[in-house]
Amino acid sequence: MAAEPANSTLSQNPEAIVGPFTDIVQRTTGIIAANTPNDLHWDRLLIMLFLALAIFVIYNGHGAKAADGGERKTGLLQFLLPRDIYTHVSARVDVWLWVLERVLRPFWFVGLFATVGPTTEQTVISSLEFVFGATPAFESAFSWMLLYSLFSLLCYDFMFFSFHYTMHKVPALWAIHKIHHTAEVLTPLTRTREHFLAGPIWATGSAFAFGVAAGLFAYLFNGGITQATLFNVSFFSFLFGLTGAFRHYHIEFRYPRWLSVWIQSPAMHHVHHSYLQKHWDTNMAAVTSIFDRLFGTLYIPEKNEHTPWGIGPDTQDQYRSFWQNTIGPFRDWYRMLSRGQSPQAGAVPTPTEEARES
Ligand SMILES: [Zn+2]
Ligand SMILES: [Zn+2]
């Protein structure tokens, strides 16, 4: 992963602004693979365990949820690694879906992330040059790097919110995303529990969001913000890795209300996975609470709020095995088409509605 000199790509055409995204991709794809959001880095898992231990001590054994989504008091081992959760069939399916995701990731990841990102970035740069003329070539400073990181985070979070919201509301897409919600227990691997068709959708969205931010800042700084991108990508890798892992952990890690209205706490994602009607379609964003607040989908749970996970008793038994989860979307689409319905926008098929219809 040794990086070549930063100006190696510029030497081919000194006139062209090369955005940080393109620069990184051109230098080596390995650096991207090493810095993308990944929840299984040992350092993140260690931080997660440390926080879990702190919660165990502070709440005297309270604060962890059982497989049924209810809070209970336990001993330390059961608190950190509850038997009913880690021996659950849903946790086993998480493992197989994770394996499949790892096998398929290089195909869509390199194919989409490395093409959509740079294309978006270069399009943004060209559009800005067309509208505003040549780059103002500002001097990059640390405060600008922070602003760039924050802007990227908001772009990413807005993309995540809008893609996620759409996948909940459009039945044909819900058929794909539902596989994330068929998890009956939450483990750190539930983060990557997705149908294999969801990977390209998320990769396209992420690449587009980061490409927009990178293009804007590359224009403002004449491409001289590459260092910030590296900082930025590592920063995200860490933040998403931690929140991604912890929000799919059974321990209720809450923030005070004043912070929850700005940043999603892991406990708020427990709510997102609940099949109780009052919890449906809430807390859709990845990092901040800003877009959920703006669009009225924010739900801050009470302490120890019951969050039974999965899609509900009516249809859950259709989504227990790896195989059922893999063919699930195709079966749903077939049902939609054979009913004469076109798979288009409408109310999200709820567990009860689906049960009524089938
Ligand atoms: Zn969801
Ligand atoms: Zn989730």
Uncertain segments of ≥5 residues (pLDDT<50)?
1-14, 27-39, 343-358
| Tally of structural domains | 1
Number of strands: 2
Distinct ligand kinds: zinc ion
Q: How far apart are the first and last residues' alpha carbons, in Å?
A: 53 Å
Percent range of helical residues: 55-70%
Task: Calculate the mean pLDDT score and round it.
Answer: 82
Shape: globular
The H-and-E topology, N to C, reads as HHHEEHHHHHHHHHHHH
The structure class reads mainly alpha
How many helices? The count is 15
List the helices and strands and how they pair.
Layout: H1 20-27, H2 30-35, H3 42-58, E1 64-65, E2 71-72, H4 76-80, H5 83-86, H6 89-132, H7 142-169, H8 171-181, H9 198-220, H10 226-246, H11 257-260, H12 266-272, H13 290-294, H14 322-338, H15 351-357
Antiparallel strand pairs: 1-2
Helix pairs in contact: 1-10, 3-10, 6-9, 7-8, 7-9, 7-10, 8-14
The chain binds zinc ion (ZN) (2 copies).
Written overview of the protein:
The protein has one domain (15-294). 58% of the residues lie in helices and 1% in strands. The chain is built from 15 helices and two strands. A two-stranded antiparallel sheet has the order 1-2. The model is unreliable at 1-14, 27-39 and 343-358 (pLDDT under 50). Bound molecules: zinc ion (2 copies). One zinc ion (ZN) binds next to loops. One zinc ion (ZN) is lined by residues 180, 248, 269, 273.
